[in-house]
Design a protein that fits this description.
Length: about 270
């Protein structure tokens, strides 16, 4: 049996010297995760389609560490490739890839349009796959047996339980992303790359703003932990999965939702 080597407690969550890319990192969950990675010592690139949002988020996050923002429309394959090239030009290795950029479309079944499938699937499912393809050489260069490179896909509890809102393409795309996570974990594990998914519940974000305003108190009351998510909840799971503490975890889908999706009392 191989000798067990203990890592000092602080080092389990220290990301000093690591390079990370967080897509959709200008707001919501992506911004929360980017902040957490920066505070743990990582150098972080964030991306968003909106140039102004990139500039604003870079300014906001700069107080926490070394951050760079790159505008990119990741619903397009060529833009995923362009972003990957820019990230690799900055650093030949990539320790952490957070695939967070996503879209949602709510509309009743009778009128749910074709474009609600194409736009959502392209960004929520194809984009993470395209970025893994493009950045695989940089991830391979970063990973070692003791400290693998990390891919963190942002799924949803809408892919674990059935939500009440009519978000057909969103739920389906996130369920597919959860399975893609497992498939990639099996293939990339021997290459020293872990692949896990986070399935967030209700967190403050532009995507969830209308829901929180309308029924936020009701959701919190029906959640086992009696609240909606906070910034530190998402920052914490990002640092755990990216650090030494999470180095032996792969192929997992982790609900970060206060218990909504996995308990009978959930909503």
């Amino acid at each position: 049996m191989a000798e067990s080597r203990s890592t000092p407690h602080a080092d389990r969550f220290d990301l000093s010297g690591k390079h990370a890319l967080v897509t959709g990192g200008t707001r919501g969950i992506g911004l929360m995760m980017a902040r957490g990675l920066l505070q743990a010592g990582a150098r972080v690139v964030i991306s968003s389609r909106n140039k102004d949002a990139c500039a604003e988020a870079q300014h906001l996050l700069s107080e926490f560490g070394d951050v760079r923002a790159i505008p990119a429309d990741l619903s397009r394959h060529d833009e995923c490739r362009r972003l990957a090239d820019l990230v690799e030009a900055d650093s030949e290795h990539l320790d952490i890839l957070v695939n967070n950029a996503g879209a949602m479309w709510r509309e009743p079944l009778e009128t749910f349009p074709d474009e609600a499938w194409d736009s959502v699937i392209d960004l929520n499912l194809k984009s993470p796959f395209w970025l893994v393809q493009a950045l695989l050489p940089a991830l391979r260069r970063a990973g070692t047996a003791d400290d693998p490179a990390r891919i963190i896909n942002i799924g949803s509890i809408a892919a674990i339980h059935v939500a009440e809102s009519p978000n057909y393409s969103y739920a389906a795309s996130k369920a597919a992303l959860h399975q893609l996570t497992r498939v990639l974990a099996r293939e990339l594990g021997p290459q020293h790359i872990t692949v896990n998914a986070v399935a967030p519940g209700v967190f403050p974000s532009r995507m969830m703003a209308a829901t929180i305003e309308a029924i936020g108190d009701t959701i919190a009351a029906k959640t086992p932990l009696r609240r909606i998510g906070r910034d530190d909840d998402m920052a914490g799971i990002a640092v755990f999965l990216a650090g030494r503490a999470g180095s032996y975890l792969t192929g997992a889908v982790i609900p970060v939702d206060g218990g909504i999706a996995t308990t009978a009392s959930g909503t």
